[in-house]
Amino acid sequence: TRLSHLASSNTDLSCRLVQSEEERLKIYKELVEEKIKANKIREQYEEETFELKTKSGQDLTEEYATLKKNYQILAEVHDKELAKSGALTAELLVLAQAQDALRRQLEEQHQCVKTSTEGLHGELDRVRALITRMSHDTVKENQDEIKDKLEEMKSSYKEQQKKLEEKVAMGKEHQQIHRAMHVSQQKVSEQSAALMCSQRQLKEAEEENSKLQLQVKELIEEYRTRLVCYLQDIAKMRGFIDSMLQDVRLSYRAREEQLATAARSYKKRLQRITQTHHALLIAYLQREQILAKPENGLDPGPPEAHFNLERTELKDAMEKELQQLHQDKARLEGQLQAAWEQ
């Protein structure tokens, strides 16, 4: 009975040991799966971060290209406005010179008209005085000559009046030209204001462009630094995973060898116990037969208690095995906790 109990106890302990090893291998497998899952999550996070950085860089590049295109358009408009302003300035200068010439000509004509008008008025006064004197002197023989002179004076007066009207028309035309020049000056002023506004916008666009270029450079440097850090972290993680997998493989191999050795020793031990059990059964049957026939005078041998194991010996073996299992369990839990902390 005690031998069967010992055999069953050893079998139970071996089963527990095998179950403990299976649980340990299962824990190691779960740990490796968790590490792989964590690495996948980290790689996914790094890929998403890289995509976001790349997208922001592309947006900045597109915005920079748009600003550069707007800058070129403003520069072309600025050049056109400068050329147009130069042409308008030259035209305005020509108009100003023409205005000065017309003003001088008009002043000269006005002076001539004034002089001729004063001469005509003096001539008329002289003619009137002559007519009065001739009427008083009753000189009739010179009336034809006086009429001729009057006709000549009338014709010269009409010519001068016609010239005066032409000069007045020229003055009106000069005023119209002056108004047109004033309108042109207003247009030139408006275009100059628009040109100044375009120059200010161009300067602001250049400043914004320089700021965006600086931001692009800073983002590129930051992205490069982060990429180097990510690559270093990936290399470290890969080395850590490789070393961890190597340790796990070595541990698995050592444990497999240990289990194989334990299984072989257990098999040999079981064979020895089985042989001993058969021998004991045979000896027990022989002893029972001898005790059943005391008349034969055969020696039955030592008593039954001599073949039984001590309770302390059985207890020591079980405690050693259980202590070994507890130590293996504590060591596995410590390794699992350290792996989770990493």
UniProtKB/TrEMBL annotation:
GO cellular component, one term: cytoplasm
Top-level taxon of origin: Eukaryota
Coiled coil segments of this chain: 18-48, 136-222
Residue span(s) of domain DUF4472: 20-55
InterPro entries: CCDC78 (IPR039873), DUF4472 (IPR029329)
Keywords: Coiled coil
Protein name as it appears in the record: Coiled-coil domain containing 78
Species the sequence originates in: Pundamilia nyererei
